[in-house]
Design a protein that fits this description.
Number of helices: 12
Structural class: alpha/beta
Bound molecules: iron/sulfur cluster
Strand content: 15-25%
Radius of gyration: 22 Å
Helix content: 25-40%
Strand order of the largest sheet: 2-1-3-4-5
């Protein structure tokens, strides 16, 4: 049986698309292999959102070059955000790659039209990603995504409901709905349904236990959606709301379309409407011309909002973005690293305190697998929990009393 190997880095959307591509190849008679050397088809699903990710893709391609040379019959293809509109240029730079195809599309040699998102994974895990839309219309100054994934296209509600029903039949208990900006879901569909409408329909699916969604955009998140999260029992009280900066000048330069004041109001609206809501955010430090004072405003906002999770990254210019054309990358690397470190330290302290409050409490955990001899799963608020039990707990909702906490995970005992 011919074999395929898919290597994926980057966001959850890339992971969801790789899973769908794998399922499609299996429908066509291929079998997955964990070793690139054994594969007949190798696909790299790439990310270029930061320099580090782009370098990893290039290094991986370099490592595969001798294999391709030794086996010219091997099909080597690249998809994901490395693939821009200048495919001819990519072919010149990387001549040993057979095919380049855009994120979310079918490989060109399969001669199939349409979008990979309509494939339902054949072997989904307990918690599975479901893309609900593709693309982004926002053009934040630092971001390459809209250039690589194009304009927003939402999947119809009926199609998503049908897919989630199929996934539940295949053992899925939790879905995470994915989009670059899920708050603008549906505006391009007839009758313009929104994410709250979609959540309402999915909440009615029998056998589905939990629903999550990401990523939100602070300028588009509606009161209606916040209410829906508060009232729909399967929708988890966990909101991912990237702030990027606490400085209005930097937010304007980033073209984010909201102010720090708007963001603070949104956070307090979420906290007062959704009891026990866990919040996570993304931050970029060292954006061009970011001063100490502007960084301090970001730091203060994070200290005040007390997020459960913060993903922080140092700015790196991405060729083709507005920021790379208009601004000089003028914050020294050492300064970026120091700011990043300050936020990581702040967040470690906050996460320690938030998690310590769970000591002795009983939480509901959806068991997703095993690691180092223990069961692992997540709470409704997305916290990673480990526990021991000799029974098969996979895909079950269990109650765990928390006995040990750290900033990153919890440990406990089955109640
Ligand atoms: S909302 Fe902004 S950061 Fe997010 S994908 Fe769109 S352009 Fe990029």
């Amino acid at each position: 049986m011919p074999q395929y190997y898919i290597w994926t880095i980057g966001c959850q959307m890339n992971k969801a698309e790789s899973e769908r591509l794998g399922s499609y190849l299996e429908q066509r008679g291929y079998q997955a292999t964990a070793a690139a050397e054994d594969a007949d088809i190798i696909v790299l699903n790439s990310c270029v959102v930061r320099q580090h990710a782009e370098s990893r893709v290039i290094n991986k391609l370099d490592a595969l070059k001798p294999l391709k040379k030794a086996r010219p019959d091997l099909t080597l293809a690249v998809t994901g955000c490395l693939v821009n509109s200048e495919v001819e240029q990519l072919k010149k730079t990387l001549p040993y790659v057979d095919y380049f195809f855009k994120a979310g599309e079918y490989p060109p040699w399969l001669e199939k039209e349409g979008n990979l998102h309509t494939i339902t994974p054949l072997h989904p895990s307990t918690s599975t990603f479901v893309p609900i839309m593709q693309g982004c219309n926002n053009f934040c100054a630092y971001c390459i995504v809209p250039y690589r994934r194009g304009q927003e296209r939402s999947r119809p509600i009926a199609e998503i409901v049908c897919e989630v029903e199929q996934l539940v039949n295949r053992g899925v208990k939790e879905v995470t709905l994915l989009g670059q900006n899920v708050d603008s879901y549906g505006h391009d569909l007839p009758h313009q349904p929104d994410l709250a409408d979609l959540l309402g329909k999915l909440n009615a699916i029998e056998g589905l236990a939990r629903i999550r969604f990401l990523t939100n955009h602070p300028k588009d998140m509606s009161a209606r959606l916040i209410e829906a999260v508060a009232h729909l029992d399967k929708v988890c009280e966990m909101i991912c709301l990237p702030v990027q900066s606490g400085s209005n000048e930097i937010l304007k330069a980033m073209r984010r379309g909201y102010t720090a004041e708007h963001y603070r109001r949104l956070v307090s609206q979420i906290q007062s409407t959704i009891p026990g809501a866990a919040l996570s955010t993304d931050v970029i430090v060292g954006f061009p011309s970011e001063t100490d004072e502007q960084f301090r405003q970001t730091f203060d906002l994070l200290a005040e909002a007390r997020f459960d999770t913060v993903h922080v990254a140092a700015y790196s210019p991405r060729t083709g973005t507005i920021a790379s054309k208009e601004f000089e990358d003028n914050v020294p690397l050492d300064e970026k690293r120091e700011r990043l470190h300050k936020i990581e330290q702040l967040q470690e302290g906050i996460a320690t305190e938030i998690n310590q409050k769970l000591l002795g409490k009983t939480v509901e955990v959806l068991v997703e697998g095993r690691k180092k001899g223990k069961w692992q799963g997540r709470t409704r608020t997305g916290k990673l929990v480990f526990f021991s039990d000799s029974n098969d707990c996979l895909r079950q909702l269990v109650n765990i009393r928390i006995e040990k906490t750290s900033p990153w995970s919890l440990q406990g005992e089955l109640v």
